[in-house]
Amino acid sequence: MSASIASGDDRVRVWRNAKLATLAEEAVGLGIVERGAVAVNGERIVFAGPESGLPAGLTGADIIDCEGRLITPGLIDCHTHLVHAGNRAAEFEMRLAGASYEEVSRAGGGIVSSVKALRGATEADLIAQTLPRLDALIAEGVTTIEIKSGYGLDLENEAKSLRAARSIADQRAVTVRTSFLGAHALPPEMDGDKDRYIAKVAGEMLPAIAQLGLADAVDGFCEGIAFSPDQIARVFDAAKALGLPVKLHADQLSNLDGAALAARYGALSADHLEYTDEAGARAMAEAGTVAVLLPGAYYFIRETKKPPVDLFREHGVGMALATDCNPGTSPLTSLLLTMNMGATLFQMTVEECLAGVTREAARALGLAGETGTLQAGKLADLAIWDVERPAELVYRMGFNPLHARVWRGQ
Ligand code: DI6
Ligand code: FE
Question: Going by CA atoms, what residue is nearest to atom 3 of ligand 1?
Fold first, then answer.
């Protein structure tokens, strides 16, 4: 080991003889490098580019021959409700028999039935139920995941969910970002009084969660069956006062101008967006808010209105793709299948799909400086695939060509 760039430690490794898709912002398309190499010192990338350009000092480092395989940034699932208890297969059967998601929800099913299950579960239970879902994502190259609360709906149970989310990061080689989604649904004990619950979320629960350091961001569900734009704005005002970034479930089932509301608060992302109009897309572009598209939910509730992908392209809104893994509308634990759905259902290109689970997903989490592309200075989060063309990652359904995964250099 003689790598001078190793700054005294012996942890420099080089993955060579690979095709790279760097996904770098300034690159053309996927940023393909045909005979590429990635050099890593500790947990950071120190070089990603053509093998011929490897700094001389790195030639003595540990070398891993990729035998021509494709290296992409580690995948990022930027919108999940991964921590939940039980499942809603029975509700799925009701919907198969003809009931709509909104009808099931109004009949006392829906989110509130998951709230009952979560409140009855211990933190250890929750972790045990969540890990298999996380492992399925990790097996496909996921290195960063966002996890929301939102099935506790009181301080004790929201905190329990977020602690469970944080602690699974200690049990697996993965980066976890948490979002507080207290404004997800009205808990039964509030007797239909949404304003009273929102006052509690904004005035009591959120400040306590922030004090405990359990949330990286604050999310809400702006919808007829959930909370109005005014109510969400009260939660966002409280988030801003605490210095926490916001994101929003917006315009999923109807257009309440949720995208524009999110943009007004400089949201990291607005998510779902099936019913978003041109004014919403324009507002998002101006605010730099990422559009997080969730084709699993669109598919599972058999929605027919597609998000306005053309408007996002036209106005230069970045698009991410995520699983929305949740027991009610998207029991999905595959980002590869999510990409296939993004292409097949939303007519996204291969480049858009891959950027959507890497660079744009990092932006949606406020992590653009840390991960999501293969560039010097970023964390060494890599996925190495047994494929020839990047399109193979989007094209297959239910096949996993992951060869190896590297998280922070490990
Ligand atoms: N939108 C969704 O698709 C999920 N939450 C949300 O705000 C549904 C959550 C559930 O049905 O459990
Ligand atoms: Fe969601």
Answer: 329
Which ligand does the CA of 326 lie closest to?
A: 1
Reported as a single tens digit per residue, the pLDDT across 93-109 is: 988 999 887 788 777 78
23 with 374: CB under 8 angstroms? yes
Place of tokens 């653009």: 368
What DSSP line would sit under 205-269, residue for residue? IHHHHHHHT--SEEEEEESTTSB-HHHHHHHHHHHHHTT--BEEEESSSS-SSHHHHHHHTT-SE
User: Could you read off the pLDDT of 204-243 as tens digits, one per residue?
Assistant: 999 999 999 999 999 999 999 899 999 999 999 999 999 9
In one-letter notation, the amino acid at residue 270 is A
Within 8 A by CB and 6+ apart from 309, the residues are 293, 319, 346, 347, 348
| Cα–Cα dist 175/164, whole Å | 14
pTM as predicted: 0.96
Judged by its nearest atom, the ligand closest to the C-alpha of residue 80 is 2
**Ligand 1 cavity residues, CB under 6 Å:** 110-111, 114, 184, 221, 249, 252, 297, 324, 326-329
What residue's CA is closest to ligand 1, atom 4?
329
Dihedrals φ, ψ of 247, to 5°? -145, 165
What pLDDT digit, counting tens, does each position of 158-202 carry?
999 999 999 999 999 999 999 999 999 999 999 999 999 999 999
The DSSP string of 116-146 is HHHHTS-HHHHHHHHHHHHHHHHTTTEEEEE
Q: Which tokens is 178 given?
A: 């948490």
